[in-house]
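Field notebook, page 532. I keep forgetting to write these up properly, so this time I am using the form the group agreed on. The chain and the ligand, flavin-adenine dinucleotide, are recorded exactly as supplied. Prediction of the bound pose follows.
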Amino acid sequence: MQRKVDFLVIGSGMAGLIFALKVADHGKVCVLSKTTIDDTATSYAQGGIATVMYSPDNYEKHIDDTLKAGSYLNDEDIVRITVKESTGRIKELIAWGTHFDKEKSGKYSLAREGGHSEYRILHHKDNTGYEIQKTLSHKVRNHPNIEILENHFSIDLITQHHLGERVHRKRKDITCFGVYAMDRDTRNIETILSKITLLATGGLGNIYQTTTNPVFATGDGVAMAYRAKAHLENLEFIQFHPTSLYNPGEKPSFLITEALRGAGAILKTRKDEPFMKKYDDRLDLAPRDIVARAIDNEMKLSGDEFVYLDARHISREEMLNHFPTIYAKCLSIGIDITKDMIPVVPAAHYSCGGVKTDKNGKTGIRNLYASGEVACTGLHGANRLASNSLLESAVFSHRAALYSNAHFKNIGHAKNVPDWDAEGKIMNEEMILITQSKKEVQSIMSNYVGIVRSNLRLKRALDRLEIIYNETEDLYNKSVVTEPICELRNLINVAYLVIRFAQQRKESIGLHYNIDYPPKRSGDFSRRKTFD
Ligand code: FAD
Ligand code: SIN
């Protein structure tokens, strides 16, 4: 079956839905979701969205904090665009119906998170992402030009390669014509042809054993873009959130928002001793790379499997008003956070790298755009500042939509695109192998490519991964295409890329910490050239 649309949006999180809404008055839009429209990392976002609201905060402070957190590997132009355009994008979210908490005075209530020098996080209790997702999906469902295909798994981007041409990575004219996507209910593989395609597939946290990311986040977008020969960047910078709830076996790991530390919660050892003073002057609100490494070190020193977050001194009223989701979740496993300390452990949380885009969300592949976590705009550099991710999606989906609207009229649909060749067989025994291989990939990445790396560990990871890669390609070539085998291939592709990017970076900086290259000094590794 072949469908033709003007705009194809792969992903129904904040990045995908904002783009869809902004192009829908110009042409026919199709939005794909791997599961259901609201099952996204966007819906999980707790802390909020960073933006400058009131004095004494100002744009320069937000820009400076973003650059400092990113160890100045950020693209400064992109940082400036993001921060300066944040006000317009936030006003738009509010106009569309998103509610952010306010003080009694009527002013917006602002939280603080690690690496921010001011209170600037707009939030809706501790479920900001869900509030935004709900607003956007309501608007999208009611737009007559937008079709939503849930349970549609994108397998591969269609390029000249599928028309039988040889496509080299250095070729300049690679074009995206749409995507092959599997309807997970019928198992049919559809050919969806589009003039413009937006990749908005979110993160890749499931290459690790422990992650805050939804289970669908297997790096499909990065893997598809890599196979289509797009330019990728910064994949060594995987952010581990310092505080996910220690609750063995739970997937995804439940996040304990950094805003709780912003409200005064303190990291402690099992012996009730605060430890962040040993690591950074900013204590518990140092940027995430520093806090996650500090916790990792404390766990190694003590042999414990977690550290504690002590929020007992925060008033019950503040807890129930601002953090009701966390309060209820912890209570459900027997922890009353107004009386008990919370056991926490770092978990893979966010990919700062991804598909390289320019300031209009364009990738190196013609007619292919990317936005949200799958993209690498240059905003985050070596480490993302907390709550800058939702903001990035809003700013660059808006820009990508404006650019697409101005340019899509001259683009035609590709002709003679063959349908997916669905030959092959799969047996139950092979399904078991797929599940097992997925666990092996996650274990390799967690053991050797985690918060602390070394050249030996990275090499070992690559050697182990190669065995699974060869077995999986062999299986893929013989099998009927199913979602588990495609996901496994994507996980392996992405794990390979993270290791290779990590091997190529011969220094410790931001989120990439390799003991063979001791950092020049702890905290921020100043590369500042244009400030002060
Ligand atoms: P997502 O919202 O993850 O959406 C991805 C979409 O792609 C989904 O619809 C999915 O179905 C679809 N998809 C994926 N693969 C395929 C495929 N193969 N075929 C079809 N569809 C596919 N950031 C902040 O700024 N502030 C916060 O407070 C915050 N808190 C967070 C808390 C948690 C627990 C997590 C996990 C992240 C948090 N983040 C936060 C990060 C932020 O939520 C994400 O980076 C952001 O929401 C990503 O948006 P997105 O639109 O790119 O992707
Ligand atoms: C959090 O609430 O701690 C997560 C914020 C983020 O990932 O930006």
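OBSERVATIONS:
- Confidence is low (pLDDT under 50) at residues 522-532.
- Residues 246-346 form a domain with the Flavocytochrome C3; Chain A, domain 1 fold (CATH 3.90.700.10).
FOLLOW-UP: compare against the apo run.
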